């Protein structure tokens, strides 16, 4: 299985995200400067997602499109900038508890943002279920190959 590249925003407790990832290969980054303040259980070094100080032309296009979806106050702009940085690093899942910006599962805002930034956006609870399903799929895989060998 390939390594999951996960971004955790500041609304999500890191220890619960790490617990969800137990047994799965992953790389975790945080959206805020709290990486230096947190001691992860896994022993993995935590890093903060890198957001450029100045907004370049490419990022500006994405921000305009994202802000048309979620609104343009400073909180929405900050969230959109982190999503842009997340997508630049080709990360797989953005985990947030901020439903006012990202919407609930099935919300049109979330679908549009996920499509724009080519990623999956999940709440912590959805992420925990996602990880449980991945572990189940991994456990089922060796059995499938054993049955085909005979």
What do the pLDDT scores average to?
A: 86
The number of domains is 1
Task: Please list the strands of the largest sheet in the order they lie side by side.
Answer: 3-2-1-4-5
Number of helical segments? 6
According to CATH, the fold-level topology is Rossmann fold
Along the chain, the helix and strand elements come as EHEEHHEHHEH
Largest sheet: 5 strands, parallel
Question: Which oligomeric state applies?
Answer: single chain
Characterize the overall form. Answer: globular
What's the count of strands?
A: 5
The low-confidence runs, each spanning 5 or more residues with pLDDT under 50, are: none
Radius of gyration: 17 Å
* CATH level 1 name: Alpha Beta
- State the separation between the terminal residues, measured CA to CA: 23 Å
Short description:
This protein has a single domain, classed as Rossmann fold.
Report on the architecture of this protein.
The structure is a single chain. The chain has 150 residues and is an alpha/beta fold. It has one domain (4-149): Rossmann fold, CATH 3.40.50. Helix content is 51%, strand content 12%. The protein has 6 helices and 5 strands. Strands 3-2-1-4-5 form a 5-stranded parallel beta sheet. Helix 1 (14-20) packs parallel to helix 6, helix 2 (57-70) crosses helix 3 and helix 2 (57-70) packs antiparallel against helix 5 (108-117). The relative contact order is 0.16.
